[in-house]
Specification:
- The mean pLDDT is 80.
- The chain is an all-alpha fold.
- It is elongated and about 50 Å long.
- It is built from 3 helices and no strands.
Length: 78
């Protein structure tokens, strides 16, 4: 029995939704950290995403963005 008194039928769907939301929030936090020059923080978040979601297609993209010198478009040129 589900802790709210239901049969737990929707539990799998809720879990999937929660994982998807966590993945999206993590990606957003990585982008914000990168944008604010917090490259180490962004890298740690990407590592956590990759550890928890090894099949994620977003993790390699975010990893490349944080590990290589890809700067935001507004970055001042030298």
């Amino acid at each position: 029995m589900h802790r709210y008194g239901g049969s737990g039928v929707g539990a799998a769907g809720e879990h999937s939704t929660a994982r998807s939301a966590w993945r999206a929030l993590t990606a957003l936090l990585v982008l914000l950290a990168w944008w604010n020059h917090r490259f180490a923080t962004a890298g740690r978040l990407v590592d956590e995403l990759w550890e928890r979601e090894p099949e994620s297609t977003l993790a390699p993209l975010l990893s490349r963005m944080t590990d290589t010198p890809i700067f935001p478009a507004w970055w001042p040129s030298t």
